[in-house]
Automatic annotation (TrEMBL):
Domain of life, source organism: Eukaryota
Lineage: Eukaryota, Viridiplantae, Streptophyta, Embryophyta, Tracheophyta
TM helices/strands, residue ranges: none
Key words of the record: FAD, Flavoprotein, Monooxygenase, NADP, Oxidoreductase
GO molecular function: flavin adenine dinucleotide binding; N,N-dimethylaniline monooxygenase activity; NADP binding
Cofactors named for this entry: FAD
Organism: Oryza punctata (Red rice)
Protein name per its UniProtKB record: Flavin-containing monooxygenase
EC number: 1.-.-.-
Amino acid sequence: MSSSSSDWSSKKVCVIGAGMAGLVAARELRREGLDVTVLEQSAGVGGQWLYDAATDGGDPLGMAGVHSSLYASLRLNSPREVVSFSDFPFHPIGGGDVRRYPVHGELLRFIREFCDVFGLMDAIRLDTTVVRVAVAPPRRDGSLRWTVRSKHNGDAETEEVFDAVVVATGHYSQPRLPSIDGMDKWRRRQLHSHSYRVPDSFAGEVVVIVGCNVSGKEVALELRRVAKEVHLSAKSTTEALTPSMSKMLARYDNLHLRPLVEHLCEDGRVVFDDGSFVIADAVIYCTGYNYSFPFLETEGKVTVDDNRVGPLYEHVFPPSLAPSLSFVGIPAKLILPRFAEVQSRWVAQVLSGRRTLPSPEEMLRAVEEYNRAKEAAGLPKWQTHHLFLDLEYCDEYGERHCGFPRMEQWKKELIWSSISDMRDDIETYRDDYHDSDVIRDGRRLHGWPPSPPLAPRPQEKDDDDDRRRKAFSPSKFSLR
Protein backbone atom coordinates (compact mmCIF):
# COMPACT_ATOMS: atom_id res chain seq x y z
CA MET A 1 0.00 0.00 0.00
CA SER A 2 2.87 2.39 0.77
CA SER A 3 4.01 2.97 -2.77
CA SER A 4 0.66 2.48 -4.46
CA SER A 5 -0.40 5.67 -6.27
CA SER A 6 -2.54 4.29 -9.08
CA ASP A 7 -4.68 6.83 -10.91
CA TRP A 8 -4.05 9.51 -8.31
CA SER A 9 -4.78 12.31 -10.77
CA SER A 10 -8.51 11.74 -10.25
CA LYS A 11 -8.27 11.55 -6.48
CA LYS A 12 -9.18 14.05 -3.79
CA VAL A 13 -6.57 15.38 -1.35
CA CYS A 14 -7.35 17.30 1.85
CA VAL A 15 -4.74 19.75 3.16
CA ILE A 16 -5.26 20.78 6.78
CA GLY A 17 -4.01 24.31 7.40
CA ALA A 18 -3.59 27.39 5.18
CA GLY A 19 -0.34 28.72 6.55
CA MET A 20 2.85 28.78 4.49
CA ALA A 21 3.22 24.99 4.56
CA GLY A 22 -0.40 24.28 3.68
CA LEU A 23 -0.52 26.81 0.85
CA VAL A 24 2.66 25.60 -0.83
CA ALA A 25 1.42 22.02 -0.40
CA ALA A 26 -1.81 22.96 -2.16
CA ARG A 27 0.11 24.57 -5.00
CA GLU A 28 2.42 21.61 -5.51
CA LEU A 29 -0.47 19.12 -5.38
CA ARG A 30 -2.38 21.12 -7.98
CA ARG A 31 0.68 21.25 -10.21
CA GLU A 32 0.59 17.45 -10.19
CA GLY A 33 -3.04 17.52 -11.29
CA LEU A 34 -4.61 16.50 -7.99
CA ASP A 35 -8.00 17.70 -6.70
CA VAL A 36 -7.18 19.76 -3.58
CA THR A 37 -9.30 21.06 -0.71
CA VAL A 38 -7.69 23.14 2.03
CA LEU A 39 -9.41 23.41 5.41
CA GLU A 40 -8.41 26.39 7.57
CA GLN A 41 -9.81 27.16 11.02
CA SER A 42 -9.09 30.91 10.92
CA ALA A 43 -10.90 33.64 8.99
CA GLY A 44 -7.94 34.17 6.65
CA VAL A 45 -4.86 32.50 5.26
CA GLY A 46 -1.45 32.90 6.88
CA GLY A 47 -1.48 30.44 9.75
CA GLN A 48 0.90 31.60 12.47
CA TRP A 49 1.43 34.88 10.60
CA LEU A 50 -2.24 35.89 10.85
CA TYR A 51 -1.83 38.12 13.89
CA ASP A 52 -4.52 37.82 16.54
CA ALA A 53 -4.56 40.54 19.20
CA ALA A 54 -6.69 38.26 21.36
CA THR A 55 -4.95 35.92 23.76
CA ASP A 56 -6.01 32.87 25.68
CA GLY A 57 -7.79 35.12 28.16
CA GLY A 58 -9.16 32.51 30.53
CA ASP A 59 -6.07 30.35 30.18
CA PRO A 60 -2.92 32.51 30.16
CA LEU A 61 -0.69 29.45 30.00
CA GLY A 62 -1.87 29.19 26.44
CA MET A 63 -3.94 26.03 26.19
CA ALA A 64 -7.26 27.64 25.22
CA GLY A 65 -6.88 27.42 21.48
CA VAL A 66 -5.76 30.80 20.07
CA HIS A 67 -3.59 29.81 17.11
CA SER A 68 -1.17 32.68 16.54
CA SER A 69 1.79 33.23 18.86
CA LEU A 70 2.86 36.56 17.37
CA TYR A 71 3.31 39.60 19.56
CA ALA A 72 2.49 43.04 18.18
CA SER A 73 6.01 44.38 17.54
CA LEU A 74 7.60 41.18 16.23
CA ARG A 75 9.97 41.46 13.29
CA LEU A 76 11.32 38.52 11.29
CA ASN A 77 14.59 37.13 12.58
CA SER A 78 15.54 35.70 9.18
CA PRO A 79 16.42 37.83 6.13
CA ARG A 80 13.53 38.26 3.73
CA GLU A 81 15.79 37.09 0.88
CA VAL A 82 15.65 33.54 2.28
CA VAL A 83 12.09 33.64 3.64
CA SER A 84 10.59 32.90 0.25
CA PHE A 85 9.70 30.13 -2.15
CA SER A 86 12.01 29.00 -4.95
CA ASP A 87 10.02 30.78 -7.66
CA PHE A 88 8.33 33.49 -5.61
CA PRO A 89 10.74 35.86 -3.82
CA PHE A 90 9.73 38.01 -0.86
CA HIS A 91 10.61 41.29 -2.59
CA PRO A 92 9.80 44.57 -0.85
CA ILE A 93 7.01 46.62 -2.39
CA GLY A 94 6.21 50.32 -2.25
CA GLY A 95 4.08 51.26 0.70
CA GLY A 96 5.13 48.20 2.70
CA ASP A 97 7.94 47.51 5.15
CA VAL A 98 10.94 47.33 2.83
CA ARG A 99 13.48 46.39 5.50
CA ARG A 100 15.42 43.14 5.30
CA TYR A 101 13.79 42.04 8.57
CA PRO A 102 10.27 43.46 8.29
CA VAL A 103 7.42 43.36 10.78
CA HIS A 104 5.18 40.29 10.74
CA GLY A 105 2.42 42.01 8.76
CA GLU A 106 4.72 42.27 5.74
CA LEU A 107 5.15 38.50 5.67
CA LEU A 108 1.38 38.06 5.87
CA ARG A 109 1.09 40.36 2.85
CA PHE A 110 3.55 38.12 1.01
CA ILE A 111 1.62 34.97 1.95
CA ARG A 112 -1.64 36.48 0.71
CA GLU A 113 0.03 37.55 -2.52
CA PHE A 114 1.38 34.01 -3.02
CA CYS A 115 -2.13 32.66 -2.52
CA ASP A 116 -3.59 35.11 -5.06
CA VAL A 117 -0.89 34.72 -7.72
CA PHE A 118 -1.30 30.94 -7.76
CA GLY A 119 -5.08 31.06 -7.56
CA LEU A 120 -5.41 29.01 -4.40
CA MET A 121 -8.36 30.74 -2.71
CA ASP A 122 -10.95 28.72 -4.61
CA ALA A 123 -9.57 25.58 -2.94
CA ILE A 124 -9.63 27.01 0.61
CA ARG A 125 -12.48 26.82 3.09
CA LEU A 126 -11.96 29.39 5.81
CA ASP A 127 -13.49 29.30 9.31
CA THR A 128 -13.48 25.52 9.06
CA THR A 129 -12.19 23.52 12.01
CA VAL A 130 -11.15 19.92 11.46
CA VAL A 131 -12.68 17.82 14.22
CA ARG A 132 -11.65 14.30 13.24
CA VAL A 133 -9.48 12.54 10.67
CA ALA A 134 -9.68 8.74 10.61
CA VAL A 135 -9.23 5.85 8.20
CA ALA A 136 -12.33 5.26 6.06
CA PRO A 137 -13.38 1.98 4.44
CA PRO A 138 -10.72 1.25 1.78
CA ARG A 139 -11.23 1.39 -1.95
CA ARG A 140 -11.76 -1.77 -3.93
CA ASP A 141 -8.05 -2.03 -4.68
CA GLY A 142 -7.34 -1.97 -0.93
CA SER A 143 -5.72 1.48 -0.85
CA LEU A 144 -6.49 3.72 2.10
CA ARG A 145 -9.00 6.54 2.25
CA TRP A 146 -9.71 9.06 5.01
CA THR A 147 -12.86 10.40 6.62
CA VAL A 148 -12.51 14.08 7.49
CA ARG A 149 -15.09 15.59 9.82
CA SER A 150 -15.15 19.38 10.00
CA LYS A 151 -17.25 22.23 11.33
CA HIS A 152 -17.75 25.58 9.58
CA ASN A 153 -18.36 28.61 11.81
CA GLY A 154 -19.99 26.52 14.49
CA ASP A 155 -22.46 24.90 12.11
CA ALA A 156 -23.30 21.23 12.24
CA GLU A 157 -20.38 18.90 11.55
CA THR A 158 -19.96 17.51 8.03
CA GLU A 159 -18.06 14.45 6.86
CA GLU A 160 -16.19 13.92 3.62
CA VAL A 161 -14.02 11.13 2.30
CA PHE A 162 -10.61 11.92 0.79
CA ASP A 163 -8.05 9.71 -0.87
CA ALA A 164 -5.20 11.44 0.95
CA VAL A 165 -4.66 13.90 3.79
CA VAL A 166 -1.73 16.30 4.18
CA VAL A 167 -1.34 17.68 7.69
CA ALA A 168 0.17 21.18 7.64
CA THR A 169 -1.00 22.67 10.92
CA GLY A 170 2.32 24.07 12.16
CA HIS A 171 3.89 23.61 15.55
CA TYR A 172 3.90 27.00 17.29
CA SER A 173 0.47 26.94 18.92
CA GLN A 174 0.55 24.37 21.72
CA PRO A 175 2.80 25.71 24.50
CA ARG A 176 5.47 23.49 26.00
CA LEU A 177 5.65 24.26 29.70
CA PRO A 178 8.35 23.35 32.22
CA SER A 179 7.62 21.41 35.37
CA ILE A 180 8.48 23.75 38.24
CA ASP A 181 7.58 23.05 41.82
CA GLY A 182 4.90 25.48 42.99
CA MET A 183 3.55 26.49 39.57
CA ASP A 184 0.09 25.25 40.51
CA LYS A 185 0.02 27.28 43.74
CA TRP A 186 1.61 30.54 42.55
CA ARG A 187 -1.25 33.04 42.50
CA ARG A 188 0.42 35.88 40.62
CA ARG A 189 0.44 36.19 36.85
CA GLN A 190 1.85 33.30 34.80
CA LEU A 191 1.70 33.07 31.03
CA HIS A 192 3.42 31.41 28.12
CA SER A 193 4.95 33.66 25.47
CA HIS A 194 2.23 32.28 23.19
CA SER A 195 -0.14 34.61 25.05
CA TYR A 196 2.14 37.67 25.10
CA ARG A 197 1.14 40.55 22.80
CA VAL A 198 2.14 43.97 24.19
CA PRO A 199 4.21 45.14 27.19
CA ASP A 200 1.84 47.76 28.63
CA SER A 201 0.27 45.65 31.39
CA PHE A 202 3.71 44.87 32.85
CA ALA A 203 4.54 48.53 33.60
CA GLY A 204 6.33 48.93 36.91
CA GLU A 205 6.39 45.18 37.57
CA VAL A 206 9.10 42.65 38.34
CA VAL A 207 9.02 39.99 35.63
CA VAL A 208 10.81 36.65 35.45
CA ILE A 209 11.26 35.15 31.98
CA VAL A 210 11.93 31.42 31.92
CA GLY A 211 13.88 30.55 28.79
CA CYS A 212 16.81 32.37 27.28
CA ASN A 213 16.59 31.64 23.56
CA VAL A 214 15.67 34.21 20.93
CA SER A 215 12.07 34.76 22.00
CA GLY A 216 13.03 35.10 25.68
CA LYS A 217 15.67 37.71 24.91
CA GLU A 218 13.43 39.71 22.60
CA VAL A 219 10.48 39.75 25.01
CA ALA A 220 12.89 40.79 27.77
CA LEU A 221 14.21 43.66 25.67
CA GLU A 222 10.70 44.90 25.01
CA LEU A 223 9.57 44.54 28.64
CA ARG A 224 12.63 46.26 30.10
CA ARG A 225 11.27 49.56 28.68
CA VAL A 226 8.24 49.48 30.98
CA ALA A 227 8.98 46.95 33.73
CA LYS A 228 10.77 47.73 36.97
CA GLU A 229 13.00 44.66 36.60
CA VAL A 230 13.30 41.79 34.13
CA HIS A 231 15.05 38.58 35.18
CA LEU A 232 16.03 36.10 32.47
CA SER A 233 16.30 32.54 33.79
CA ALA A 234 18.58 30.17 31.85
CA LYS A 235 19.40 26.48 32.24
CA SER A 236 23.07 27.44 32.17
CA THR A 237 24.12 31.02 32.82
CA THR A 238 27.54 30.19 31.39
CA GLU A 239 26.10 29.09 28.04
CA ALA A 240 23.59 31.94 28.05
CA LEU A 241 26.28 34.57 28.47
CA THR A 242 26.86 35.07 24.75
CA PRO A 243 28.26 38.34 23.35
CA SER A 244 24.68 39.38 22.65
CA MET A 245 23.56 38.69 26.23
CA SER A 246 26.60 40.48 27.65
CA LYS A 247 25.73 43.59 25.64
CA MET A 248 22.11 43.47 26.83
CA LEU A 249 23.11 43.24 30.48
CA ALA A 250 25.69 46.02 30.12
CA ARG A 251 23.21 48.39 28.51
CA TYR A 252 20.28 48.04 30.87
CA ASP A 253 20.46 48.11 34.65
CA ASN A 254 17.01 46.53 35.03
CA LEU A 255 17.93 43.40 33.02
CA HIS A 256 19.38 40.47 34.98
CA LEU A 257 20.55 36.96 34.08
CA ARG A 258 19.54 34.26 36.55
CA PRO A 259 20.03 30.50 36.82
CA LEU A 260 17.28 27.91 36.55
CA VAL A 261 14.09 28.48 38.53
CA GLU A 262 13.91 25.90 41.31
CA HIS A 263 10.46 26.67 42.69
CA LEU A 264 7.73 29.27 43.03
CA CYS A 265 6.37 30.34 46.41
CA GLU A 266 2.84 31.43 47.24
CA ASP A 267 4.15 34.72 48.66
CA GLY A 268 5.45 35.71 45.20
CA ARG A 269 9.04 34.60 45.55
CA VAL A 270 10.73 32.99 42.57
CA VAL A 271 13.62 30.93 43.91
CA PHE A 272 16.54 30.05 41.67
CA ASP A 273 18.72 26.97 41.99
CA ASP A 274 21.63 28.94 43.45
CA GLY A 275 19.43 29.90 46.42
CA SER A 276 18.81 33.48 45.31
CA PHE A 277 15.29 34.76 44.78
CA VAL A 278 13.20 37.71 43.62
CA ILE A 279 9.66 38.70 44.52
CA ALA A 280 7.98 38.79 41.12
CA ASP A 281 4.67 40.07 39.79
CA ALA A 282 4.71 37.85 36.70
CA VAL A 283 6.43 34.83 35.19
CA ILE A 284 6.56 34.39 31.41
CA TYR A 285 7.52 31.00 30.00
CA CYS A 286 9.46 31.25 26.73
CA THR A 287 9.91 27.49 26.64
CA GLY A 288 8.84 26.41 23.18
CA TYR A 289 5.96 24.40 21.78
CA ASN A 290 4.59 20.88 21.48
CA TYR A 291 3.39 19.08 18.38
CA SER A 292 -0.32 18.41 18.67
CA PHE A 293 -2.82 16.74 16.34
CA PRO A 294 -5.97 16.31 18.46
CA PHE A 295 -8.10 15.60 15.40
CA LEU A 296 -6.00 12.69 14.12
CA GLU A 297 -7.07 9.12 14.89
CA THR A 298 -4.63 6.47 13.67
CA GLU A 299 -5.06 3.71 16.27
CA GLY A 300 -1.57 4.38 17.56
CA LYS A 301 0.14 4.29 14.16
CA VAL A 302 1.19 7.92 14.56
CA THR A 303 2.00 9.20 18.05
CA VAL A 304 3.63 12.19 19.72
CA ASP A 305 6.09 11.06 22.38
CA ASP A 306 8.06 13.83 24.08
CA ASN A 307 7.69 15.92 20.92
CA ARG A 308 8.81 13.12 18.61
CA VAL A 309 6.13 12.63 15.96
CA GLY A 310 6.40 9.16 14.68
CA PRO A 311 7.22 7.05 13.15
CA LEU A 312 7.71 9.45 10.22
CA TYR A 313 9.89 8.52 7.27
CA GLU A 314 12.02 11.59 6.52
CA HIS A 315 9.73 13.64 8.79
CA VAL A 316 6.85 13.22 6.30
CA PHE A 317 5.33 9.75 5.79
CA PRO A 318 4.10 7.34 8.49
CA PRO A 319 5.28 4.02 7.02
CA SER A 320 2.11 2.02 7.61
CA LEU A 321 -0.19 4.79 6.31
CA ALA A 322 1.84 6.20 3.42
CA PRO A 323 1.35 7.74 0.98
CA SER A 324 -2.27 8.55 1.85
CA LEU A 325 -1.24 10.37 5.06
CA SER A 326 1.64 12.82 5.16
CA PHE A 327 2.93 15.75 7.20
CA VAL A 328 4.46 18.96 5.82
CA GLY A 329 6.34 21.42 8.02
CA ILE A 330 7.23 19.18 10.96
CA PRO A 331 11.00 19.96 11.08
CA ALA A 332 12.18 22.91 13.19
CA LYS A 333 15.34 25.04 13.30
CA LEU A 334 15.49 25.62 9.55
CA ILE A 335 14.30 27.95 6.80
CA LEU A 336 10.67 26.84 6.74
CA PRO A 337 9.24 28.21 3.46
CA ARG A 338 11.87 26.53 1.34
CA PHE A 339 11.89 23.21 3.21
CA ALA A 340 8.09 23.08 3.27
CA GLU A 341 8.16 23.57 -0.49
CA VAL A 342 10.61 20.68 -0.83
CA GLN A 343 8.45 18.39 1.27
CA SER A 344 5.29 19.46 -0.56
CA ARG A 345 6.81 18.75 -3.95
CA TRP A 346 7.90 15.32 -2.79
CA VAL A 347 4.44 14.50 -1.40
CA ALA A 348 2.77 15.72 -4.59
CA GLN A 349 5.06 13.68 -6.82
CA VAL A 350 4.49 10.56 -4.73
CA LEU A 351 0.72 11.00 -4.80
CA SER A 352 0.70 11.61 -8.55
CA GLY A 353 2.74 8.47 -9.16
CA ARG A 354 5.84 10.21 -10.46
CA ARG A 355 7.85 8.89 -7.50
CA THR A 356 7.49 5.83 -5.30
CA LEU A 357 8.28 5.20 -1.67
CA PRO A 358 10.23 2.29 -0.18
CA SER A 359 8.26 -0.52 1.42
CA PRO A 360 6.76 0.11 4.87
CA GLU A 361 9.42 -2.13 6.39
CA GLU A 362 12.25 -0.22 4.74
CA MET A 363 10.79 3.13 5.79
CA LEU A 364 10.38 1.99 9.38
CA ARG A 365 13.98 0.76 9.48
CA ALA A 366 15.15 4.12 8.15
CA VAL A 367 13.20 5.92 10.88
CA GLU A 368 14.70 3.72 13.58
CA GLU A 369 18.22 4.26 12.23
CA TYR A 370 17.67 8.03 12.15
CA ASN A 371 16.43 8.06 15.73
CA ARG A 372 19.34 5.91 16.93
CA ALA A 373 21.79 8.27 15.24
CA LYS A 374 20.20 11.26 16.98
CA GLU A 375 20.37 9.52 20.33
CA ALA A 376 24.00 8.47 19.76
CA ALA A 377 24.79 12.14 19.10
CA GLY A 378 23.41 12.97 22.53
CA LEU A 379 20.27 14.74 21.35
CA PRO A 380 17.14 14.33 23.48
CA LYS A 381 13.99 12.84 22.00
CA TRP A 382 12.22 16.20 21.91
CA GLN A 383 14.79 17.44 19.38
CA THR A 384 14.11 14.61 16.91
CA HIS A 385 12.81 17.02 14.27
CA HIS A 386 15.36 19.78 14.85
CA LEU A 387 17.56 20.18 11.79
CA PHE A 388 19.76 22.89 13.35
CA LEU A 389 19.96 24.81 10.09
CA ASP A 390 22.00 22.09 8.38
CA LEU A 391 21.88 23.60 4.91
CA GLU A 392 23.81 20.73 3.32
CA TYR A 393 21.31 18.22 4.70
CA CYS A 394 18.43 20.33 3.36
CA ASP A 395 20.04 20.49 -0.10
CA GLU A 396 20.64 16.74 -0.20
CA TYR A 397 17.11 16.07 1.05
CA GLY A 398 15.59 18.10 -1.78
CA GLU A 399 17.81 16.61 -4.47
CA ARG A 400 17.18 13.06 -3.30
CA HIS A 401 13.43 13.18 -2.90
CA CYS A 402 12.16 15.50 -5.64
CA GLY A 403 15.05 16.91 -7.67
CA PHE A 404 14.83 20.25 -5.90
CA PRO A 405 17.62 22.74 -6.77
CA ARG A 406 20.27 23.48 -4.16
CA MET A 407 20.22 26.80 -2.34
CA GLU A 408 22.39 29.47 -3.92
CA GLN A 409 25.69 30.10 -2.15
CA TRP A 410 24.98 33.78 -1.57
CA LYS A 411 21.84 32.90 0.37
CA LYS A 412 23.76 30.46 2.54
CA GLU A 413 26.33 33.12 3.31
CA LEU A 414 23.52 35.55 4.13
CA ILE A 415 22.05 33.05 6.60
CA TRP A 416 25.41 32.47 8.31
CA SER A 417 26.04 36.22 8.43
CA SER A 418 22.63 36.80 9.98
CA ILE A 419 23.27 34.19 12.67
CA SER A 420 26.67 35.65 13.45
CA ASP A 421 25.22 39.15 13.71
CA MET A 422 22.36 37.97 15.94
CA ARG A 423 24.74 36.20 18.31
CA ASP A 424 26.86 39.33 18.48
CA ASP A 425 24.04 41.81 19.14
CA ILE A 426 20.38 40.77 19.09
CA GLU A 427 19.26 44.41 19.38
CA THR A 428 21.05 45.77 16.32
CA TYR A 429 21.56 42.92 13.83
CA ARG A 430 18.35 43.58 11.91
CA ASP A 431 19.35 47.11 10.94
CA ASP A 432 23.14 47.13 11.24
CA TYR A 433 24.52 44.52 8.83
CA HIS A 434 27.40 44.47 6.40
CA ASP A 435 27.00 42.35 3.26
CA SER A 436 29.98 40.63 1.67
CA ASP A 437 30.66 40.91 -2.05
CA VAL A 438 29.19 37.42 -2.55
CA ILE A 439 25.90 38.48 -0.97
CA ARG A 440 25.78 41.82 -2.77
CA ASP A 441 26.47 40.19 -6.15
CA GLY A 442 23.90 37.48 -5.53
CA ARG A 443 21.23 39.97 -4.58
CA ARG A 444 21.93 42.06 -7.65
CA LEU A 445 21.81 39.06 -10.01
CA HIS A 446 18.45 38.00 -8.58
CA GLY A 447 16.76 41.38 -8.82
CA TRP A 448 17.02 42.58 -5.23
CA PRO A 449 17.48 46.32 -4.57
CA PRO A 450 20.99 47.40 -3.57
CA SER A 451 22.02 46.64 0.01
CA PRO A 452 23.80 49.21 2.18
CA PRO A 453 27.46 49.87 1.32
CA LEU A 454 29.94 47.37 2.70
CA ALA A 455 31.55 48.67 5.87
CA PRO A 456 34.33 47.18 7.98
CA ARG A 457 33.08 44.75 10.59
CA PRO A 458 34.06 45.23 14.23
CA GLN A 459 37.30 43.45 15.11
CA GLU A 460 35.58 40.69 17.07
CA LYS A 461 33.55 39.54 14.07
CA ASP A 462 35.02 37.07 11.60
CA ASP A 463 33.96 36.90 7.95
CA ASP A 464 35.23 33.40 7.36
CA ASP A 465 32.23 31.16 6.55
CA ASP A 466 33.64 28.13 8.34
CA ARG A 467 34.22 30.12 11.51
CA ARG A 468 30.64 31.38 11.37
CA ARG A 469 29.23 27.90 11.06
CA LYS A 470 31.30 26.70 14.02
CA ALA A 471 30.08 29.65 16.08
CA PHE A 472 26.46 28.63 15.51
CA SER A 473 25.01 27.00 18.61
CA PRO A 474 21.76 25.12 17.88
CA SER A 475 20.49 25.48 21.43
CA LYS A 476 20.52 29.25 21.21
CA PHE A 477 18.94 29.97 17.85
CA SER A 478 15.56 29.37 16.30
CA LEU A 479 14.14 30.71 13.08
CA ARG A 480 10.72 32.16 12.66
